[in-house]
Write a structure and sequence with these properties.
By secondary structure, this protein is of the alpha/beta class. The chain has a single domain (5-315), classed as 3-Layer(aba) Sandwich (Rossmann fold), CATH 3.40.50.10680. It contains 13 helices and 14 strands. Strands 5-2-1-9-10-13-14 form a seven-stranded parallel sheet, with helices on both faces. Helix 1 packs parallel to helix 2, helix 1 packs across helix 13 and helix 4 (95-109) crosses helix 5 (114-124). The protein binds ligand FO1.
């Protein structure tokens, strides 16, 4: 019999925490990751893929656990010299992390696709699970704000998410081709479920759903599709999700996240502090499970991963 398969869909830091838990209970034959490329950008002449790198570094044990992005044991000589030369220093690239951007950019310039480059570089760092960029074609998140349209990293890092958001666009998504390995996992007879990690719905998950074919496949998926709430007690665990909800004029609640995905979700995982929202979410015609979802320790990550996989299996 084929090994049962699960597909996790993730953005950066919050999603990578659950991804690590999932990778610690499911082997590379059983689990693959779909990763957002809407945060990617060209910077200092290099191709930077923050969400891919956050996942690669997290799964390989290379991540800086303080920030959740970049490398541990980092040094900053490159940035110091760049600063001395009057270069652009708003985006922090550590010396170890730089090697990733340089090598990725070199391979892309040689004509390899992002999926192939990611597979090889992740493999070099000992990551056996498949990390599947949503597309090899560029998808670039742009944020509409009261200060005008901003490229994602300008909004997020340079401007520290300060401008109020009014909308988003995912430049290139409409003509981007879905990574064929994602289609293959979603169409596999062995697929037991799809898990949306606790990532920002607007800027981590929506850019992937904007790539033609992904949302349709999730809607048609015979296996259960479940999401883990990135909103707990009306707050985001990390990042600007709740700030964005307020600025967009939608309720800052876990049920709003469930509603955001109501066309394809079969199940929703809530934090226990939000158990009072269960009925409201069930009325969206999806099953609800509540548990402790705030991940501080490795045990939290594996514990949540186990609970989510059990939930998926019960729905299947
Ligand atoms: N996030 C920051 O807040 N400041 C930075 O200077 C920064 C640098 C950086 C370098 C490489 C990388 O892979 C990620 C980096 N991030 C930084 C995180 C990243 O830009 C965001 O967290 C994600 O794009 C949002 O998921």
């Amino acid at each position: 019999m084929n090994t049962p398969r699960y597909l996790a869909i993730t953005g950066g830091i919050g999603g990578a925490k659950l991804s690590l838990g999932l990778a610690s209970i499911l082997g590379p034959e059983a689990l693959a990751f779909v990763v957002n490329t809407g945060d990617d950008f060209e910077h200092l002449g290099l191709h930077v893929s923050p969400d891919i790198d956050t996942l690669v570094y997290t799964l390989s044990g290379e991540v800086d656990t303080e920030t959740g992005w970049g490398c541990r044991d980092e040094s900053w000589q490159f940035m110091a010299m760049l600063d001395a030369l009057g270069g652009e220093t708003w985006f922090q690239l550590g010396d170890r992390d730089m090697a990733m951007h340089v090598e990725r950019s070199r391979r892309l310039a040689e004509g390899q696709g992002l999926a192939q480059v990611t597979k090889e570089l992740a493999g070099r760092l000992g990551v056996a699970h498949r990390i599947l960029p949503v597309s090899d074609d560029p998808v670039r998140t742009r944020v509409q704000t009261t200060a005008g349209w901003l490229d994602f990293q300008h909004y997020f890092v340079r401007d520290r998410c300060e401008p109020a958001v009014t909308g988003f666009e995912f430049a290139g998504a409409e003509s981007a081709r879905l990574n064929p390995d994602i289609a293959a996992w979603l169409e596999s007879e062995a697929l037991r479920g799809v898990i949306l990690c606790p990532s920002n719905p607007f800027v981590s998950i929506d850019p992937m759903l904007a790539v033609p074919g992904l949302r349709d496949r999730l809607c048609a998926c015979p296996a259960p599709v479940v999401a883990v709430s990135p909103v707990v007690g009306g707050d985001a665990i990390k990042g600007p999700t709740v700030k964005m909800m307020r600025e967009l004029g939608v309720p800052n609640s876990a049920s709003q996240v469930a509603s955001h995905y109501r066309d394809f979700l079969d199940g929703f995982v809530l934090d226990s502090v939000d158990v009072a929202l269960a009925g409201e979410i069930e009325s969206l015609r999806m099953a609800v499970m509540h548990t402790h979802t705030v991940m501080v320790s490795l045990e939290d990550r594996t514990g949540l991963a186990r609970a989510v996989v059990d939930f998926v299996d019960r729905l299947g």
